[in-house]
Amino acid sequence: MLEARGVSAELLGGEGGPPVVFGDLVLPGAERTIVFYAHYDGQPVDETRWATRPFEPTLRSGSLEDGGTVLPRDALDGPLDPESRVYARSASDDKSPIVAMLTALDALKAAGVAPSVNVKFFFEGEEEAGSPHLGAVLRRHAERLAADVWLFCDGPVHQSRQPQVVFGAR
Fold it and tell me: How would you classify the pairing of strands 33-39 and 118-124?
């Protein structure tokens, strides 16, 4: 998906863990570099604690807590109520931020706007297990991962459901 958007992409060895998906978009004249971090893993689950099968996405009319009912798949053919929810293990954490990053690249291209900075992407597969191999990956690839800033696109949803920016996450 990165390569389809003009980003060079590769898998970096996970130093004993799952590979890191690394993307690099180098722009002529850019003097600064930003890295976007997200994770792609999810924890195993106890299926008996789920209302529906955890690894089969289920669309609901609202939150489970508010009595949201299962909607048929053809409900996706038209506009969805913004209160609709997809239930599946790891359906949003952290897949939504990854898709949002890709969509942002699409939007920039559609608007004819090139980023003014070099952009790197770092997607790891052990965050939910405590990232035990992350330090080794960072050390091994330190030169390639050098940047002016890292943005961690991960974190809890605020109670207000409004986007939030949190400093000092890691």
Answer: parallel
Nearby residues of 164 by Cβ (< 8 Å), 6 or more positions away: 155, 158
- Measured CA to CA, the distance from residue 18 to residue 40 in angstroms comes to 10
Give Cα separations from 130 to 22, 125, 170 (angstroms).
19, 10, 12
Q: Which secondary-structure segment (H or E) carries 37?
A: strand 33-39
CA–CA separation, 105 and 113 (whole Å):
9
Q: Residue 54 carries which side chain, given as an amino acid letter?
A: P
pLDDT digits (tens, 9 = 90+) for 95-120: 778 888 999 999 999 999 999 999 99
Q: Give the distance, in angstroms, between the CA of residue 76 and the centroid of all CA atoms in the same chain.
A: 22
Nearest to 17 by CA among 161, 113, 126, 96: 126
Residue 47's Cβ-side half-sphere holds a number of Cα atoms within 13 Å equal to 5
By DSSP bridging, strand 149-152 and strand 33-39 are: parallel
- pLDDT tens profile 139-162: 999 999 999 999 988 766 778 878
Indicate the average pLDDT of the chain.
89
